[in-house]
Design brief:
- The protein is of the alpha/beta class.
- It has one domain: TIM Barrel.
- Helix content is about 45%, strand content about 15%.
- The protein contains eleven helices and eight strands.
- The chain has helices at about 10-20, 25-35, 55-60, 75-85, 110-125, 135-145, 155-165, 165-185, 200-205, 215-225, 225-240, and strands at about 5, 40, 65-70, 90, 130-135, 150-155, 185-190, 210-215.
- The protein has an eight-stranded parallel barrel with strand order 1-2-3-4-5-6-7-8, surrounded by seven helices.
């Protein structure tokens, strides 16, 4: 069964907009777990505009489900943070310093040597590694040579085509990429622009997906539907066949 990891960046954004500790990020994370989420994801950026580095340390001490930290390993501060907090999984994302949100995956062909060097840094510390990647057979094949444990399929294009009513074409390249990754022995995660409307079809098409990481849409839904109800709706989408 595909696991749901809730990205709580947006909770931190709301907190930071007024200072103080409202909403309480740690309590929200614990509530997400209590409401059924199988993991918590954070993506600290160098400017700490949402998740702060201290948040990561604090979360590492209280979470009881899977902890996933996303970020760019070319920032030494990020590497140090991950090694200090030892999450269950680190997801490597090639973000620029001032990037609003992730908008591309790794060029695993061009960056092959770099990835082969950095991935063991985390694996040797007992941390599972996933790399953010677009649904390309060539990139998947190169990813298998890096030593990564998993890939995370970057699903923005899927979400856009699905919203336009082109469901089959939206998922086609992802089905091919996931099948190739599975054949190569890689675990498969997915994330970016997934929501309660497009999630079920993706999972029906790739039923062996290990994990999805969802933040923006889930938190937006929670404003109307409540956090507990929203998490249950997303979990239901993950089990729809």
């Amino acid at each position: 069964m595909t696991r749901l990891s809730v990205n709580i960046n947006k909770i931190a954004t709301l907190r930071n907009s007024r200072g103080g500790n409202n909403p309480d990020l740690l309590q929200v994370a614990k509530d997400c777990e209590r409401f059924g989420a199988e993991g918590i994801t954070v993506h600290p950026r160098p400017d700490e505009r949402h998740i702060r580095y201290q948040d990561v340390h604090d979360l590492s001490n209280i979470l009881t489900t899977e902890f996933n930290i996303e970020g760019n390993p070319k920032e030494q501060k990020f590497v140090d943070l991950v090694l200090a907090t030892k999450p269950d999984q680190v997801t490597l994302v090639p973000d620029a310093l001032d990037q609003l949100t992730s908008d591309h995956g790794w060029d695993t062909i061009r960056e092959l040597n770099y990835l082969k060097e950095i991935i063991p840094v985390f694996k040797n510390a007992g941390i599972r590694v996933s790399i953010f990647i677009e649904p390309s057979i060539e990139l998947i094949n190169a990813a298998a040579k890096t030593g990564t444990d998993r890939i995370e399929l970057y699903t923005e294009s899927y979400a856009k085509e699905f919203a336009a009513g082109e469901r089959e074409s939206a998922v086609a390249s992802f089905k091919i990429a996931a099948a190739a990754a599975k054949e190569l022995g890689l675990g498969i995660n997915a994330g970016h622009d997934l929501d309660r409307f497009n999630l079920a079809y993706l999972i029906q098409s790739i039923p062996y997906m290990d994990e999805v990481s969802i933040g923006h849409a889930l938190i937006c839904d929670a404003l109307y539907l409540g956090l507990e109800n929203t998490i249950q709706l997303y979990k239901r989408a993950l089990t729809t066949s």
